[in-house]
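Hello again, I could really use a second opinion on something today. Take your time with it, there's no hurry, and the full record follows here:

___
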Amino acid sequence: MTCSGAYATAAQYEALLCAGIDLTDAGEVATVNLFQGIAASDIHAALSAIGACNCTLEAWALVYLQKLNIIDAAVIQNCPCGNHIPDDRKQVLLEWLDKQYELIRTSKIALCAGDTGSEYPAFGVAEYSFTTWNQSQIIINEQMKLP
């Protein structure tokens, strides 16, 4: 995956939001797809911040990014096609999006396959050396941990 292009289509936009756009009207579809591409830049920025532009996404992550893309496009869209979202609802959606992007940027949501989030439990202890023999054992232990 790269940080370019939209994650969702006009048909997915319509399916999620029941926005009332005419999917047979090429102009309306092009407008929605344009907003999808613009809205995807927020996702690209969040992924880029954690170096996740070229990772393999978890199976659920693509659907999550499609949802973010659709909702972000709905917030910034201001065209006559489809249903109009009131400003107070747009504000709520914008706050939700900001929180989701923050979770991505802080790695609290791990989108890449094999990654664990920043809140994944981890444990380690520092080894102390009081003798020369312990010092040697610590060095051996560290070398054995290397791949």
Notes: The chain has a mean pLDDT of 86. The two ends are 27 Å apart (CA to CA).
